[in-house]
């Protein structure tokens, strides 16, 4: 069964006064308005408070999944993971959408400004609220507070909880650093006090690094010491590895050796690449052990207990229409009529991205997947209804992706007769072992002549290629690694960061479909758009903030 944590809000009324969050366009976090004294009255409250922080990546309110604590008309579009993926994949070549929402048009055509945009508003606000939750938890779990409540005997256990909360805070800050560059920097002392000052990207990088190193040397749980999917030292090392890989973007100074060392540290912790790639993305990826094997840090979803119209519910539902869903179910020999419980018919994958996969016997007759799936890259979960090129005005064109679907490992698909079945139970990976293989290999290449030559790095990559059923190339270049990342990590929130690191995101020499709103994508994007603007709600509320250059 899923390891579901009961959710309890720690000191909600105090959190509402947390740094700058109360000035954002939000609704109350809790209708019951607990005080900290009531919220932490018993010793079990600490794990419940931590559980809420852990769940905040996917939760949109403390009510039902159709209600948001942000002022969004569509609660699902206010979820952090869904919009984090959109900002990183839809702004590039991996994901396009035919829906008419203005924020989608702005993101996928690289036309965003400081105007209100649901994706940037959701990610920015939820990261800051997540930081506020962590800050309040850290305030309420100080030794003096525990002693005053007569809880001194749980200090040791709570020390581990505090380390986990600090990791989540560092993770939220990392997302802000990567996407927004120079965000506000709220700390516990800002709760109920002055607005936080702004922190520059390089300084935030240094803070996150220091925080992670301190966690590794302190009370952060070892891998296996706490139930999946709670974070461990593996999660901390993975965050460092990703951050070091992109250090030159964040600070101007590359850290390839640190990236390689951090990735190796994670690899040596005993995570396992599942024998089958698709095991990672079945609805029961927790129950089968697949997620716990390969996911280093993940966001839990459950159709019965942690429902969300965001993340993997969106990814399973948004791409397919009735015809493609039924065709896939038939081609796979499923007993169910559909491979997706809900069919929203919006998300598409441009042909230039699909072309990065090794697809055999590609055809456009609309009869099968559009290629021979048995002999192609096993990571290719595409279907084509007979039209190669994506047209944003025609939902029937181009490729659709069913990497995330409603399938279970035994082949069954829930029907739609029960409301809960509309929601996904597929956990979403924030860090997955293959990413560490790529970081190790890319860092090695950048430390050398731009190619991967060591038996160790090639061995890691061969594990992934063997699982995908495709041969290893003789020569592994940096550009090949970028394409391999696109194949392995598709729709997991990496693409924009990868293209920026390679210098391709803004370059006219690296086109993609509708880059900059141009059909063939042969256009340069202004350099300032490698980070998103600070949202205007916060700019207007906090006089200490300066807008990112170019906006």
Q: How far apart lie the N and C ends?
A: 48 Å
Average pLDDT over all residues? 92
The topology string of helices and strands comes to HHHHEHHHHHHHHHEHHEHEEEHHHHH
Query: How is the CATH topology of the largest domain named?
Result: Serine Threonine Protein Phosphatase 5, Tetratricopeptide repeat
Rg (C-alpha, Å): 23 Å
Q: How many domains make up the 3D coordinates?
A: 3
- The neighbouring-strand order within the major sheet is 1-3
The CATH class of the largest domain is identified as Mainly Alpha
Tell me, what's the shape? globular
Q: Helix/strand/pairing class, anyone? A: mainly alpha
Report the major sheet. 2 strands, antiparallel
Question: Which architecture of the largest domain would the CATH scheme give at its second level?
Answer: Alpha Horseshoe
Low-confidence stretches: 1-33
Fraction of residues in H or I helices? 25-40%
Q: Note the total helix count.
A: 21
Task: Give the strand tally.
Answer: 6
Assembly state of the chains shown? single chain
Strand content: under 5%
């Amino acid at each position: 069964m899923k390891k579901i944590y009961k959710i309890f809000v720690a000191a909600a009324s105090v959190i509402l006064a947390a740094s700058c969050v109360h000035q954002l366009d939000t609704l109350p976090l809790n209708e019951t308005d607990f005080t900290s004294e009531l919220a932490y009255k018993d010793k079990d409250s600490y794990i419940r408070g931590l559980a809420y922080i852990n769940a905040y990546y996917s939760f949109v309110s403390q009510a039902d999944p159709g209600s948001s604590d942000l002022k969004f008309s569509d609660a699902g579009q206010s979820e952090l993971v869904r919009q984090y993926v959109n900002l990183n994949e839809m702004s590039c070549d991996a994901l396009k959408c035919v829906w008419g929402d203005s924020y989608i048009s702005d993101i996928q055509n690289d036309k965003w400004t400081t105007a209100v945009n649901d994706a940037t508003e959701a990610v920015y606000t939820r990261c800051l609220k997540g930081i506020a939750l962590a800050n309040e938890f850290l305030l309420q779990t100080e030794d003096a507070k525990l002693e005053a409540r007569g809880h001194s005997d749980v200090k040791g256990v709570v020390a581990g909880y505090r380390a986990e909360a600090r990791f989540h805070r560092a993770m939220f800050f990392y997302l802000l650093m990567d996407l927004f560059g120079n965000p506000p920097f709220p700390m516990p002392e800002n709760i109920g006090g002055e607005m936080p000052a702004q922190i520059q990207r390089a300084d935030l990088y240094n803070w996150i690094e220091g925080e992670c190193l301190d966690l590794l040397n302190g009370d952060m749980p070892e891998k296996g010491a706490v139930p999946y999917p709670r974070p461990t030292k593996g999660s901390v090392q993975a965050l460092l590895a990703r951050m070091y890989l992109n250090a030159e973007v964040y600070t101007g100074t590359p850290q390839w050796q640190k990236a390689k060392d951090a990735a190796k540290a994670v690899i040596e912790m005993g995570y396992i690449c599942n024998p089958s790639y698709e095991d990672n993305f079945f609805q029961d990826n927790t129950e089968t052990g697949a997620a716990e094997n390969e996911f280093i840090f993940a966001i839990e979803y459950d159709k019965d207990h942690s429902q969300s119209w965001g993340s993997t519910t969106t990814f399973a539902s948004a791409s397919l229409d009735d015809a493609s869903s039924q065709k896939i179910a038939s081609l796979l020999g499923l007993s169910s009529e559909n491979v997706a419980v809900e069919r929203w018919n919006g998300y598409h994958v441009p042909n230039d991205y699909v072309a990065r996969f090794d697809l055999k016997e590609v055809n456009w007759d609309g009869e099968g997947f559009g290629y021979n799936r048995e002999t192609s890259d096993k990571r290719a979960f595409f279907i084509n209804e007979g039209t190669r090129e994506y047209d944003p005005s025609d939902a029937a064109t181009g490729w659709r992706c069913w990497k995330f679907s409603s399938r279970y490992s035994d082949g069954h698909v829930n029907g739609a007769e029960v409301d809960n079945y509309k929601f996904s139970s597929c956990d979403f990976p924030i860090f997955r072992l293959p990413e560490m293989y790529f970081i190790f290999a890319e860092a090695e290449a950048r430390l050398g002549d731009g190619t991967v030559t060591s038996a160790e790095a090639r061995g890691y990559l061969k594990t992934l290629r063997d699982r995908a059923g495709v041969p290893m190339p003789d020569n592994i270049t940096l550009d090949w690694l970028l394409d391999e990342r696109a194949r392995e990590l598709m729709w997991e929130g990496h693409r924009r960061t990868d293209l920026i690191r390679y210098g391709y995101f803004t370059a006219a020499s690296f086109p993609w479909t509708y880059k900059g709103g141009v059909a063939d994508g042969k256009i340069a994007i202004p350099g300032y758009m490698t980070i998103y603007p600070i949202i205007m709600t916060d700019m207007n509320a906090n006089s200490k903030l300066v807008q990112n250059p170019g906006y």
